[in-house]
Amino acid sequence: MVRRPTIADLANAAGVSVATVDRVLNGRMKVREETVRKVHDAARQVGYHGANMIRQRMLADRPEVRIGVVLPKPRHAFYQDVVKVFEDFAQASGGHSIQLQFKFTESTDPQELARVLTGFRGRVDAVAATGIDHHEVTAAVTDLRDADIPVFSLLSDFAQGVRESYFGMNNLKVGRLAAWSIAKMADKPGKIGLFIGSSRYHGHVLRETGFRSYLRDAAPDFSLIDTQINLETRQLTHEATIDLMERNPDLVGLYCAGGGMEGAISAVRQMRRPEEVILIVNEFTPESRAALQDGYVTMAIGTPLRLLVEDLMVLILMTVEKGMAETPGQKFLQPHIWTPETI
């Protein structure tokens, strides 16, 4: 018969006295949070039956912060990664009990996003969201701010001057990086295609602006085809990419500045040989990874998700505790660059 670990075993594993373990288990006296966590980790390690009770006491002693998170496309691999990173941070947080409430939007309808944001009123202490920039969205953010609920924009900015802060990449520079990559890697000048999800995505518009400005300033021999809006859908992007390649046999590059890259990848696979078209996409997902490996994607520009969420959550917790800033801010993070040689 296997012997159950005793308090003495737990104390030995945690490197503390039996009296300290007794105080942690029974809550008779205040014990430092670091010590409680050490005892809890040891309890899990040795299989002590009171581990869950210690965790509940540890959680009960922490201030609760409720955070709403709004994301698009719940079934997309990238946004599933975003959810996991948020959950990992909340689980690992030592100073706060973080309760996350996730909501997903299914369209680029500004009224849908505005309804989701307004629905958090009275239910959370702060909101982090990615979405479109529109006056109805700004009104919803203003409504939350008036209720002392700060809103933080992620990945693509919105409600500038009203939202608390933006966290993401410098999208103007991301666009210039994509154009630079195509211009430098193409064998010869030719035509270039560009997809954005919607002109309502502030980040996409900035990427388009950066992309155009680089080609105009530094690569005038390349011809940019009129920007196409793909609504971030796989099928529409696939069909539009097929059409682009059929009408432009001298197409040398394509940048998918938002979602829908899966359609562009499948179309290039269907119509061209590996490395025949320089395809630049955003975010490192199973689809972009596979296409990088077999030569149909040249580069993926990825968001440093863990750093983004860590920095964001630290600011959210500080804002909830100390109040909103007088001047809205922004935090730019350096992109991760993925090529076939970096996988």
Task: Summarize the structure in words.
The strands form two sheets. Strands 6, 7, 8, 9, 10, 11 and 13 form a seven-stranded mixed sheet that branches. Strands 2-1-3-4-5-12 form a six-stranded parallel sheet, sandwiched between helices. The chain has three domains: 1-35, no CATH class; 64-168 and 304-333, Rossmann fold (3-Layer(aba) Sandwich); 171-302, 3-Layer(aba) Sandwich (Rossmann fold). It starts with 6 loop residues before the first helix and ends in a 5-residue tail after the last strand. It has 343 residues and is α/β, with parallel strands linked by helices. Helix 8 (171-185) packs across helix 9 (202-218). 47% of the residues lie in helices and 18% in strands. The radius of gyration is 25 Å and the shape is elongated. Strand 6, helix 9 and strand 7 form a beta-alpha-beta unit.
